[in-house]
Amino acid sequence: MIIHFLKSPQLNKIYYSFKNLSTNIFYFICKFAIVSLFF
Prior knowledge:
This protein is an all-alpha fold. Helices cover about 90% and strands about 0% of the residues. It has helices spanning about 1-5, 10-39. The chain starts with a helix and ends with a helix. Keywords: Membrane, Transmembrane, Transmembrane helix.
């Protein structure tokens, strides 16, 4: 039951969207740090 839930496509979609969001936040923080260093 739990293994079936872990392999469900909905959980996969949530995982990938969360990963994508955290990557976007990471890049945003990096860009903000670079901009604040230069200006």
